[in-house]
Write a structure and sequence with these properties.
10 strands; globular; 9 helices; 4-stranded antiparallel sheet
Length: 277
């Protein structure tokens, strides 16, 4: 398994003659087999951090390490699940899950075993021959997650994977993801705009400032979850009613609102950097 380490990451985008500072001196670690979520305002650099871990973008300065290696390209040790399901429309469920395994040279027997396993784990039985157009949004995302897990990656990178789903389906997928991560733990970096989703899913939560994105605070959810025995509750609404959950959710919202209020009042984000919408 692999950790992800961001060290003094700074990212500058150039738009014509203008330079835009997206991330400024960001450092944190996603530990091995930890589920870490990042929350923050739109444009704070959450997705840019994930893309750097995936090898799809690179720091202007600083470094991103996965395991013992600095990231310089995408690799089979890291699987990415995007908000848009990114399934092949001409392939059925089995074929979509099998695709990555086939590309990496896995034997037909092992491919078949992996496809069968993750179809069962993600509740896709009976839909093996269905095409994406025949599936609901939630079912399509189940296929995308199954395809990523089937590759047996060390690291799973998830960018707003449930953002395009309706509220009820999103809750169902959150519950399914919790079960999957308990049974098959991976190092997970999860990007979300939903504070509730982050608190429910993550072991730790990184709270970012508005652009230029900086680290605001890191919250330890796992210790609270263990102390309050959240696992004994089957459904998310039961957990969300707990005082410990409400306290964490409220604290994160206060961090986000305090930073927003300070930036709006002065035009300068805390730390002295100019604030951007």
């Amino acid at each position: 398994m692999s950790s992800i380490v961001f060290r003094n990451v700074r990212r500058v985008f150039r738009r014509k003659s203008e330079e835009v500072l997206a991330l400024d001196d960001v450092s944190f670690e996603v530990r091995e087999k930890e589920f870490l979520a990042i929350v923050g305002p739109s444009g704070c650099g959450k997705t840019t951090l994930l893309r750097m871990a995936a090898g799809l973008d690179f720091p202007s300065s600083g470094s991103v390490m996965v395991g013992e290696r600095e990231v310089d390209r995408p690799g089979p040790d890291r699987a990415v699940v995007f908000q848009q399901f990114a399934l092949f429309p001409w392939k059925n469920v089995e074929e979509n899950i099998d695709f990555g395994l086939r590309c990496t040279g896995v034997s037909p027997k092992e491919r078949n075993q992996a496809v069968r396993r993750y179809i069962e784990l993600m509740g896709l039985q009976g839909h093996e021959k269905a095409y994406p157009r025949q599936l609901s949004g939630g079912m399509q995302q189940r296929v995308a997650i199954a395809r990523s897990y089937a590759l047996d990656p060390d690291v799973l990178l998830m960018d707003e994977p449930f953002g395009a789903l309706d509220a009820q389906t999103r809750v169902e997928m959150q519950e399914e993801l919790i079960k999957l991560c308990r049974e098959n733990p991976r190092t997970v970096l999860f990007i979300t705009h939903s504070v509730e989703e982050a608190v429910y899913l993550a072991d730790r939560i990184v709270v970012m400032t508005r652009r230029p994105g900086r680290l605001r605070e890191i919250l330890d959810v796992a210790s609270v979850r263990k102390r309050e025995a959240w696992e004994k509750f089957e459904h998310i609404e039961e957990v969300m009613d707990l005082e410990s959950f409400v306290h964490l959710r409220t604290h994160i919202w206060r961090l986000l609102r305090e930073h927003q209020a300070g930036a709006d009042a002065s035009g300068v984000a805390p730390g002295g950097a100019a604030a951007h919408a």
